[in-house]
Specification:
Blueprint lengths: L1 H14 L1 H6 L10 H6 L6 H16 L11 E5 L5 H10 L4 E6 L2 H13 L5 E5 L12 E7 L8 H11 E14 L9 H13 L8 H10 L7 E4 L1 H4 L1 H12 L2 H4 L2 H22 L3 E9 L4
Parallel strand pairs: 1-2, 1-4, 2-3, 4-5
Antiparallel strand pairs: 5-7, 6-7
Helix pairs in contact: 1-6, 11-13
Length: about 290
């Protein structure tokens, strides 16, 4: 499991297509109700991702003016480090941001971009989020954006993040979730669609927003969890990401070996859109602080 995720991200990083279109942020964007009504394609695709990070910071109560100007921050599943660097810039030079990923290529690219952009307070390392090498109570902020869906053990994922967070520290997470099937079980179509989504993009499995909350509560370390489903704010990203490729095919058109993969990915993006649209999938948001000792 661990190797397959690392290989997939290494491959995406090497071919450069994902970075060409998605920029430094390999996550969905944020669209306001007004922007959706005006037409999501009028919004800059990359700007939507920065807006998402800003909104996630607000949800987690994270900011230089909110006591985090000298915070030690952990970005779990950092990709090529776009959010890590953005947080390092927003929080200021006295903050210290560490990004971890399974992909050596992502660490290399993230480090290059930090040097190019003059962000010395963002550093990156290869590490398994399920077995972190950090001591207990290390970080003031633990940030996890769209990494949970790739984790083969959700309980270990949550437990490790809670473990390394300092007492009084802030935790904020965004992750793709499937609806809670305990009251209304999945039908055959639901199961077929989930199987497709699991297999196509190396996702071991999804769990519900409710189940993540239960895992956080079960640690006994945290205060009350705030949860939300940001499906309305993020759903435009799936089709928007297809349209940026249609409008500007230069990212893949001259790479014949990658062309078919891009067409296949576009089909997956549309399948994701439909799964979120009909409520099979949810966009889980979580914010909570660790109990003070």
């Amino acid at each position: 499991e661990e190797g397959s995720v690392a290989r997939e991200y290494d491959s995406w990083t090497q071919d450069g297509i994902l970075e060409y279109y998605w920029g430094e942020h390999i996550h969905l964007g944020y669209y306001t109700k007004e922007e959706m009504e005006a037409g999501y394609k009028k919004k800059d695709f990359i700007e939507a991702k920065y807006d998402f990070v800003d909104e996630m910071m607000k949800l987690g109560g994270i900011g230089a003016d909110m006591g985090d100007a000298e915070a030690k921050v952990l970005d779990v599943g950092c990709g090529v480090g776009g959010t890590s660097r953005y947080l390092a810039k927003r929080l200021g030079p006295k903050a210290d941001v560490t990004g971890i990923t399974l992909s050596p290529n992502q660490v290399k690219r993230a480090t290059e971009l930090a040097e190019e952009q003059g962000v010395p307070n963002a550093k990156f390392t290869v590490m398994n989020a399920l077995e972190m090498e950090f001591p207990d109570n290390t970080f003031d902020v633990v940030w996890a954006c769209e990494s949970g869906e790739h984790m083969p053990d959700k309980e270990a994922y949550i437990n490790e993040m809670m473990r390394v967070l300092k007492p009084g520290g802030k935790f904020v997470m965004a992750t793709w979730c499937q609806r809670d099937d305990r009251e209304v079980p999945f039908d055959k179509k639901d199961e077929r669609d989930l199987k497709f989504l699991y297999e196509e993009w190396t996702h071991p499995y999804f769990i519900s927003i409710e189940k993540y909350k239960e895992l956080i509560d079960a640690t006994g370390l945290m205060n009350d969890v705030t949860t939300a489903d940001w499906v309305d704010e993020t759903i435009a990203s799936w089709r928007h990401s297809i349209w940026v490729g249609v409008y500007d095919p230069r990212g893949f058109i001259f790479k014949p070996a990658k062309y078919l993969k891009c067409v296949r990915d576009a089909y997956c993006l549309e399948r994701m859109h439909r799964a979120f649209k009909r409520g099979l999938m949810q966009y889980g948001m979580f914010a909570v602080t660790k109990k003070s000792e």
